[in-house]
Here is the input.
Amino acid sequence: MSEQRRPSFINFLAPEDPDPLAWADICRDEAWQGRWVALDDCAYNEAGEATAGLVVDFDDNLAELCARLSDERRKSCSVVFCPPAESAA
Here is the structure.
């Protein structure tokens, strides 16, 4: 395969950056809507669902996202789908 994978999103963040984001805030951001999002440093609710975390990477393609996470040996991320914004009717 000659195609190079893009580096993870987290590699572009400054070391003093970020605080975990609430899942509701992540879902409001158009950059992540309709995409698979990898979260690290997560908080979870009683049902075991991520409610906040650091966005470390994202992709439209789940397999490509997982491949990058594996290449970078990120074993503790939660990968969740950020639903697209509801269309205005």
